[in-house]
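Chapter summary example.
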Amino acid sequence: LTGKFTQKTTFQKGDWRGEQRDRKWLLDLVNQVEKVKQIIGNSMPLYEAALKFCLSSDAVSATIPGARNLKQAELNFGISDKELTKEELAKLRKLWSSGDTGGLKFA
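The structure predicted for these 107 residues follows.
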């Protein structure tokens, strides 16, 4: 959700993501992120929208986001008080419940 993956992204030797037989998973992921970007626009960064979407559910009281470095941890910890709009939430929920995850599988 940082936008660093594109359809042309390659991975270094030894990175499990580069060892997949085909790149369909990456293309599906990039396409799915693009759909979310269309809904969110510039209202907030994607990582923040993802956390807020999870927290918008009554079944969720906390999230445990990953961070590879201090800056990412600080960004996750400091998400703004700005909420997703009702329209954004409705569109995201519709996208999620439609099962249109671009071929991605979630456990």
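To summarize the output: The chain has four helices and no strands.
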